[in-house]
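Researcher: Please translate sequence to structure tokens.
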Amino acid sequence: METTGIVRRRTAERMRDAWERLGNERDVWVSTAHPDHGPHQVPLWFLWDGRAVWMCTSAASVTARNVREEPRVCLALPDTFDVVLLQGEAECFPDREVPADAAEAFADKFGWDPRVEEGSFLYVRVVPRTVRAWRGEPELRGRVIMRDGMWLG
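Model: Translation complete:
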């Protein structure tokens, strides 16, 4: 791993950078598991509302099936050097029951409103309980920036 030139960030800097990425990124890797079918990972579009990650998937998808059975999930932004990992529990909202402000913000960000599509969609909300952020080996120590739902900086 290339570590030359990496300046170790303080927790507050890591939090600021993570919040910025959560606000600007489009995709997140969603890892779920099912007791009978095992693990599953898929990229989904997401919206960060300042407190939670909102995603949307077909109500018949493997992700939807898994989070209904086992709500614990791991989310990862798609950069293997500037890592941001979130863990939490998924809360599911059928497309006809999702809070309007979340659905409208999602539609505004992506230009796509699953509520008007044919078929059923499931909005998945994850409030992180743990967040880890690091850039390269020098930042492995202190990579936890949220613990038990509380930001540490």
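Researcher: Any highlights?
Model: The chain has one domain: 11-143.
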